[in-house]
Amino acid sequence: MARQATIERKTKETEIQVLLDLDGTGRVTVNTGVGFLDHMLESFAVHGGFDLSVNCMGDLDVDVHHSAEDIGIVLGQAFAKALGEKTGIARYGSFTLPMDEALAQADIDLSGRAYFVWDAVFAAEKIGALDVQMLPEFFRAFATNAQLTLHLRVLYGDNDHHKAEALFKAFAHALRIAVARGGDALLTTKGVI
Ligand SMILES: [Mn+2]
To answer: Which of 131, 155, 24 lies closest to 79 in space, CA to CA?
Structure first.
């Protein structure tokens, strides 16, 4: 069965369309109005092996807060919908990814329970037009709406662009491992995840 989903969400702050295919080939179209966020989401899709289309018309005249958070919400919803019943998936995924001097780590359990742990320090307040404070907000929104346990760490690094990009790529690779299908079993003693 195809593991794909389309979600549209419209509020007074943002209007977002997301198309996600977990078994894609890295076909990516991202237009959020925030260049650095486009760059991160494109990296996420390519490294996750996903097809991804994101369109966001947000109130960027206020700031990037609503757009970044709401994209996290809709992406998380699309992920949960695309993943479906979880039969046969690896469930767990961990990946440590270097980018030059920076090292980032992502650990995932597609547990059905939303939990988010963030351990990262950045030097600047912004990367491009993206407020660094919105990085954990984006990932928290994704984890909450996808109902997954997500731990993200930057172990070390100097350059904020590298640290953020290493995080998105580590997240993508960990997710790719967790959603990989290997059989018909549901990896739980509980009967449901
Ligand atoms: Mn880059």
So the answer is: 24
- Backbone dihedral region of 158: left (phi > 0), alpha (psi from -120 to 50 degrees) or beta? alpha
179 alpha carbon – ligand 1 mean position (Å): 25
Query: How far apart (Å, rounded) are the C-alpha atoms in residues 49 and 71?
Result: 19
pTM, two decimal places? 0.95
d(CA 32, CA 72): 12
CATH number of the domain to which 144 belongs: 3.30.230.40
Number of alpha carbons in the 13 Å side-chain half-sphere of residue 112: 10
- Nearest CA to 22 out of 52, 44, 54 is that of 52
Give pLDDT tens digits for 123-174. Answer: 999 999 999 999 999 999 999 999 999 999 999 999 999 999 999 999 999 9
Calpha distance 83→2 (Å, rounded) = 9
Q: How many helices (H) and strands (E) does the chain have?
A: 4, 10
- Asked, for residue 51, whether it belongs to a domain, the answer is yes
165 CA → ligand 1 middle, Å: 6
Q: What is the mean pLDDT of the chain?
A: 96
Q: Is residue 77 part of a domain?
A: yes
Report how far ligand 1's centroid is from the alpha carbon of 161 (Å). 6
The average pLDDT across 81-108 equals 96
Please indicate, yes or no, if residue 57 is contained in any of the structural domains: yes
Gap from CA of 150 to ligand 1 centroid (Å): 23
